[in-house]
Structure formats: structure tokens, C-alpha cells
Design a protein that fits this description.
alpha+beta; five-stranded antiparallel beta sheet; transferase; five-stranded mixed beta sheet; Beta-Lactamase; Alpha-Beta Plaits; nucleotidyltransferase
Length: 344
């Protein structure tokens, strides 16, 4: 019996030594430890825990309510959610970071880790221990970095928005410039009164077709016509009436041409047509149809409108100046007769 008592005393001393050793170890690796006896709701806290928060050791009630009261109100819901998740078995660990109120009213960032260490015969937890650690400086640096990253993100977003806005503005400006350039180019190639090609545009097309003829032998014809007695119209009816006639003539001829044909105002009441892939016979037939159509170009005139035509086909080896002189000479002969077609 005495031997049994000695063994029991030895076990008790060993348990006390183990508990004391555990407490020392926890004090080394943490700034404060807590021990919660769940059935009695008693919470014992190490002197380091009180010192960390600026309190005298054992100066606060040793219950869970003390813990609730020192947690920052903004952190409380999150901490309770994490704690209850562990207690109720929805999480396999309890570990939170939050602010604790110090004695002077300031708040200190701490990390809190805990776990169950004792259970009853039915497996229900009866004891939980945990450790607090002062992470204030690290947390402030972390939060400062997060804030800086947030500011940098917002700055980057503003810069991206600014770049996007500038890019969009530049795109619209470029589109406007392209459109203006296209309009300018069109105006430089269009006769402002009749809205058909001007002499500059016609000469470009003529040169291109002349090169096709020299290189590949593609046939091409030209037709030039002049309105008869146009000066009389201007003199008797006025220039607005003359302009109306020129517009009407351009519209009649344009409707009877192909898309690939180039129809231009050559000057005054003279017009010229470039007819790619068209021989002289086909060109003359077209000229005849146009000559008859022009008589009905402006029915408001007191006299019938007529025109004189010259038609020719490009010749390989002939330069453009010679070609145009030949066409102009033929038109001169046609104008002497009026309302006719001369082929050269």
C-alpha cells in the first residue's frame, strides 16, 4: 500500500513537471498562452499574455467574456466565425489574426492558435489551449504594403483608363484624318459642278490604260463630245441655266456608262470618256446612243440640246499627247458640222 502511494505521488510530480515544462515551452514560442476549461468556462492566461497587452498579471476575469471584450469590434465577427467553425467541427484548425485592446486603449495585432487537448469518455472536448503572438509590426507592414498595392492598382487602373481614352481619342482623330484625306482626295479628283471626274483624275486613268495597252495589248477607246451652241444658252438664259444643263448632261451620260469607264469634264462644255476593253466600233455605237439621249437631257430648254462627238481607239506605240491631239482634231471637225460623230 505504501509502495502504491509512492508511485501515485511520483506520477503526480511527473505530471506537474510535464505541465510546467509545456508552459515554459509555450512561453518561449509565444507571447502569451491561454488554457480554457470548457465545462467550467474557466480561462487561465499566462503572465506574458497580460504583459503583452499592458495589464498586470491575473488582473482580468478568467473567463471567455474577457477574451470577447478585448477583441476589436471590427474583427469580432470574423474571429467568432473561425472559432465556432473549429468548435463545431466545420474546420480542422483554429488560427486567426486580429486586434486586441491594450490597457491604454490602443490595439495590438496578434495571431491566435488553439486546439483541443482533452476529451471526455464520449469524445466531447473538455479542454482547449492556445497561444498568442505579437505580430503588430509585421501586420502593420503587411497592411501598409496592401494599401500601397491597392493604391498602385488604382493608379494603374486610372492610367489604363487614361491610355484607353487617349487611344480612343487618337483612333477617332486618325479616322477623322483618314476621312478628311479621303474627302480631300475625292474633291481633288471630282468636278465640283457635275460631280464626275475632273481632268486630273481622267489623265491618271488614261495613263494607266495606256500602260496596259503597251504591256498587254488591252484595247481601249476614247470619246470626247462638246455641247453645241452652249454659249447661246449662257448668253440667253444665264449661267445658272447653263450649269443646270451641264449637270443634266453629266447625269444622262453617267447612267449609260459602265463602272469601269471613266467619265470626266474636260473643260467648259467639253466632256471625255475612257472606255477600257472597247474597240472603236463599240465606242461609236455608244456615242450614237449618247448623242440621241442628250437631246432629251434638259426638256426645260426652249431649244433642243445637241452635241458633237469624236471617237478614237488607242494605238500601240502612240504617245498620249499625240493621241489627245488626234482626238481633239476630230472633235474640231465634228463641231464644224454640229450634232454628229467623227471617228479618227
Amino acid at each position: 500500500m505504501e509502495e502504491l502511494d509512492v508511485n501515485q505521488c511520483t506520477d503526480t510530480l511527473d505530471n506537474q513537471d510535464s505541465a510546467r515544462t509545456l508552459r515554459y515551452a509555450l512561453d518561449i514560442v509565444s507571447d502569451g498562452i491561454w488554457d480554457w476549461r470548457i465545462r467550467s468556462n474557466h480561462v487561465s492566461r499566462s503572465p506574458g499574455w497580460y504583459t503583452m497587452l499592458g495589464y498586470d498579471p491575473n488582473s482580468l476575469p478568467e473567463n471567455v467574456a474577457t477574451w470577447h471584450e478585448v477583441i476589436h469590434p471590427d474583427d469580432f465577427p470574423r474571429v467568432m466565425e473561425g472559432f465556432n467553425a473549429y468548435v463545431e467541427g466545420r474546420s480542422d484548425r483554429y488560427a486567426e489574426e486580429y486586434r486586441c485592446r491594450c490597457r491604454d486603449g490602443s490595439y495590438l495585432w496578434i495571431s491566435d492558435h488553439g486546439r483541443f487537448v482533452e476529451f471526455d469518455g464520449e469524445g466531447r472536448a473538455t479542454r482547449m489551449i492556445g497561444a498568442h503572438r505579437n505580430i503588430h509590426e509585421r501586420k502593420l507592414a503587411e497592411l501598409a504594403l496592401q494599401q500601397k498595392n491597392l493604391e498602385l492598382l488604382e493608379l494603374n487602373q486610372r492610367l489604363e483608363a487614361l491610355v484607353e481614352a487617349r487611344t480612343e481619342a487618337l483612333r477617332r482623330a486618325n479616322e477623322a484624318l483618314v476621312e478628311q484625306a479621303a474627302v480631300a482626295l475625292r474633291l481633288s479628283e471630282i468636278d465640283p459642278l457635275t460631280q464626275i471626274a475632273n481632268r486630273r483624275r481622267f489623265e491618271q486613268q488614261l495613263h494607266a490604260e495606256w500602260q496596259r495597252l503597251q504591256r498587254h495589248g488591252h484595247v481601249c477607246s476614247l470619246m470626247m463630245f462638246d455641247l453645241d451652241h452652249f454659249k447661246r444658252i449662257n448668253d440667253s438664259l444665264g449661267h445658272p441655266a447653263g450649269d443646270r444643263v451641264l449637270v443634266a448632261v453629266a447625269e444622262v451620260v453617267r447612267r449609260r456608262l459602265r463602272e469601269e469607264d471613266c467619265f470626266a469634264r474636260w473643260g467648259g462644255e467639253e466632256f471625255i470618256v475612257l472606255l477600257p476593253e472597247t474597240g472603236s466600233d463599240e465606242a461609236r455605237e455608244l456615242a450614237e446612243r449618247l448623242r440621241l439621249s442628250l437631246r432629251r437631257a434638259d426638256v426645260s430648254l426652249p431649244v433642243q440640246l445637241t452635241a458633237s462627238f469624236a471617237v478614237t481607239e488607242m494605238h500601240a506605240g502612240e504617245d498620249l499627247m499625240a493621241l489627245l491631239r488626234r482626238l481633239d482634231d476630230a472633235l474640231y471637225r465634228a463641231k464644224r458640222q454640229r450634232d454628229c460623230i467623227v471617228t479618227c
